[in-house]
Amino acid sequence: MVQRLRANVDRLRPGHPSPIIPVLLGSEDHAVAVADALLEAGLLVPAIRPPTVAPGTSRLRIAVSATHETADLDRLAETLERLGHPL
Known about the structure:
Blueprint: H1 2-12, E1 20-26, H2 28-40, E2 47-48, E3 58-63, H3 70-82
Antiparallel strand pairs: 1-3, 2-3
């Protein structure tokens, strides 16, 4: 399972040290809008915003697991790219 998790993380962001991958977006409104667009596409990626993070540093929190399928990770990456936020 550990090897599968490492491979899944590397598929999205090679060498990233954690299965939690942030996508920094800046404004709270923008982070919420992107999270909503991902949810409409069937992808649950929450927006993390103040007070959890400092104002102006809102982000998406991608939580990669060993059980994610390659096709799901590819769909997430493609959808983020289409929304203007490639990994």
